[in-house]
Amino acid sequence: MRLTSSSSTAAPLVTRSAPPTSQELTVMMPFGRYSVQAQVGIGGMGTVYRGTQLSLGRPVAIKVLRVSDGYDFAFEDRFRREARAMATLNHPNIVAIYDYGHIGTEFLFFVMEYVDGTDLGDIMRTGRMTRELALQLLPQICAGLEYAHSKGIVHRDIKPANIMLTRQGEVKITDFGLAKDVMRAPSMVTETHMVMGTPEYAAPEQFNAHRHVDHRADIYALGVLMYQMLTGALPRGSWQPPSSLLPGLDPRLDAVVIRALMTDPGHRFQNVGDMRRAIEAAMVPAAQAPSRPMPVAQPSAGRILLLEDDLMVRDLMRRALEKAGYEVVETGDGKDTLRLYQEAMHQGQPYDLAILDLTIPDGMCGRETMLYLRRMDPQILAIVSSGYRDDPVMKDCGAYGFAAALPKPYQVEGLLQIVNGVLAVGRRRTL
Fold this sequence. Notes:
The chain has 431 residues and is of the alpha/beta class. 34% of the residues lie in helices and 18% in strands.
């Protein structure tokens, strides 16, 4: 069917031209410094080619971006920022950059180290990621990010596609296109309030244009990546700790993931070095771990009523306490806690200790629960738990009837030390 003249009022169809071929790019590159052999990848941040730097005869990767592709989102500025950010970084676990510039007025380019290998996304898609490989690679990823952060550079888009792996098993972090020099520009949201990063790996604060975002956003993304590498899934909804899905996995790795994925940046690892050391410590068999003996409760340790609304934290606490010999009953709301405590008293089997989460957004909080519990049992022994260390209840827990305060995040050893200490004092009072 032929179009009539009335169709002339319709908007013209804009056809996006294909990226230049390898032969075309060889001619377009300035000063004849590079020979381009093949296109090896294409995505939202540009097209990547395999080439050769003729003066040195070394293989290189050449990334090309059409300037007009990203005019709405300042792609040109971000492209230059990637080049400058990467140029300051010299680390074996970060892809090195050699050159960058314009190709006429239409294209931008930069030349970087060619990685003969693949990315983590491909490894996971093809089922080649194993527990052993994940634990071999994670410290390398941490080391690269730790170095970048030490130079004031935050990556902002840590995800499987941006973690390359050479044939020799060496990690190379790439694609710093969203990187931000936090020493010069502390804001990590664009002027149009566009969130930077891939949603599945972005930290909660990256979705809030009014919140300060720093290197701890990379730590959150690394926590997501770690969970995915170990389990093959993303930590969505009420996700289970990795060891619940992988029998035999050291539960100490659960604590690493949970801490990295804390909603509040202040509750996460405060630097990647600490996260790396925690991962490496969990890789050492428990019998050989160079640490103090973990406090172990006596067989007659007693019964604990645990109020905690965060399923992951609750599961971690329950397993640690049960492993130490305690009987644990869990609740996620203060009203259920009151009911269970009252039932236990009527049955003549009172709980020896209650651990109450201070903040329950969708239910009765620990402070209110404690008010009712003290009326029910003036001799109640309880610990308050919270990540808000400056809360009046945490700073002066005794004034609210608590025997001790348990700040989050915490290690298993610290949890057991406080629980054992409170119960020991409580028992002496009853003698």
